[in-house]
Amino acid sequence: MSRSLPQTFTDRDGIGYQALLLAGFALAASVLLVVGNLVTKGPIAERKAEDLLASLEQVIPAELHDNDLLANPMMIPRSSLNSGSGSSRSPSRHGENPIIVYRALRGLDVTAVAFETLGQGYAGPIRVLLGIGVDGRILGARVLAHSETPGLGDKIEIARDAWITDFNGRDLTDPPPEQWAVKKDGGVFDQFSGATITPRAVVAAIKGGLEIFAAQRDALIASVVITTETSQ
Amino acid sequence: MTKDLNETARERTPWGRIARDGLWDNNVVLAQMLALCPLLAVTGTATNGLGLGLASLVVMVASGLLVSSLRGLITPQVRIPVFVLIIATLVTLVDLAMNAWLHDLHKVLGLFIPLIVTNCAILGRAESFASRNRIAPAVFDGLMMGVGFTLVLVTLGAMRELIGSGTLFANASLLLGEAMGFLEVTLISDYRGFLLMILPPGGFLALGFLLAGQRLLKRLPNIKRRAQSASLASPG
Prior knowledge:
The complex is a heterodimer of chains A (about 230) and B (about 240). Helix content of chain A is about 35%, strand content about 15%. Chain A is of the alpha+beta class. Chain A is extended. Chain B is an all-alpha fold and about 240 residues long. Chain B has a two-stranded antiparallel ribbon with strand order 1-2. Chains A and B meet through helix 1 of A and helix 5 of B. Chain B: Belongs to the NqrDE/RnfAE family.
């Protein structure tokens, strides 16, 4: 770019002009971004809520609840979860983020809960949404997000394979804890040919979720009147 | 390639020349070899390619418009930061808009939209064309470069999708609305898939074939001429 620039550039060489120009553009860009953010903030939040609700409805049957699933979620700080075997994930990695538990209510009684649990997959974390009935049985599980190999590990998505429905109706005693694993590890769940790490991670995530539920059961299924009082 | 750029920049360029440059002669991917990172990353399906192509197209046209209309203000000394700022702002706005109104597609492409900022082709056009031309040609150049880029993305996506999973334009209704669902074709039913083509190596392979094909097409007239003269020269 050493050759002289065309006439279309005006030659105002003063440092003041350059600074003002840059500042002016930065200001204009900031204003545009603020406006853009304000305009899109509402719709983006709505889309995200719709996504979440659609997933929740897949893991909690409609007949189990008469409330808005997104209303009044319950927060469980992860620091309270270090009881028992738990999952092998280091608690520090997920930091301060509490687990958000969505509760299905009929009247004021909790009939089911749903929350997100994480597994460490082949190519990153796998986020699994798990619906559990008050009896501790799995109502449904869905993978929300993952970055597994397309064509191999993505059979954990309900859109591609019914594999994840194998968890429906199971609890911590069915199969017994030592068989909560893929078949290769002596468990009962199928792995996919060419991909063992992915289903192993999902199984671990779901088992971890069940353990969280078992540890927190009393708090989770206490009827809503009491929990709203104690949640402070 | 550099000669080409200077040529287009020097004079007021006729419309046909701009179109030809954008679509073929000086195509972002096929000739300039720019923007390969987003190209290879998203073209697992034709629909994804189309989505990223259209988003890039919008940014290219808007950056052409802005850079060209502000070229009287911008001094050579600070032009690069100003161009980058303009492009980054545009990309962020496109990202927000897609997240709000094309949410399903954004879930697929979300990771790659911010990458448009690093698409050197856009900065390249701002620097070498939009900042030296009147508004109308600059916008037209952005449009043609964008269309050229989109065409390559869709072609590459279609090649990989067809060989990799036997479908074409899967999930097109997410991008274009239910009305365009008819685009979704399963060409080979019961196809087991050819995973390699969907994975990144497949992107490189398909791009290689695409480039070879383009070179061949460009040379075809020459080859024909040579063949003709050879057949004339050889004694019958």
